[in-house]
Amino acid sequence: MVRDAYLAAATAAVALVGDEAVARRWDEPSVLDGMSVGLLAGHLARSVLQVEWYLDAPLPDGEPITAEAYYARLEGTRDPGSPLDAGVRSRSEEAASAGPVALHDRAAAARDRLADRLRREPPDRRLEAFGRVLLLDEYLRTRCVELAVHLDDLALSACLAPAPPPAAVAVAVDVLVGAARERSGDLAVLRSLARRERDPRDAVRVL
User: Fold this and answer.
1) Is residue 168 assigned to a domain?
2) DSSP secondary structure of 130-166
3) What does the mean pLDDT of the chain come to?
4) pLDDT score of 76
5) How many domains does the chain have?
């Protein structure tokens, strides 16, 4: 099911990256501070492109982690000057540098290949992403997070109605709540959800 959710979100991302409203606003600011619409489109498209890159890499050794642990262990998610943020911007610039048409075409071709490839990959398929080993389906759960969040961001940036696929949104919510529980503990998450006056750490905020 997660593979279907991922492919639905990837299809929506390809369509949005190729929308004329995005191309018209390519160099304008997005809803994310310090990122243009083009950079945000590049970041969104990478969640389609990089799945194929990681599948083409050598099989990694090591014990796989969950999608929740992947996000819980990220550092610098709220710091605009962090190495994590700098890396995101650099990779987004690289992806967006060819312009909206070329980016769309690359992402569309990757999505089409993945539609076939994901049906053939076994359940125990592992890959490595940014130094972390995950099962393929766990990695696709992290991509559902990225696609759902940034489909919303990019649509709003282009003055379009946000429409991330519901299945991908459901996966994203499960992963992010799980990451918040792993990072902050259940009591802190409970308070963040129900007693915000007792939530000095903003425990449910993961990204």
Assistant:
1) yes
2) TTEEEEHHHHHHHHHHHHHHHHHHHHHHTT------H
3) 94
4) 65
5) 1
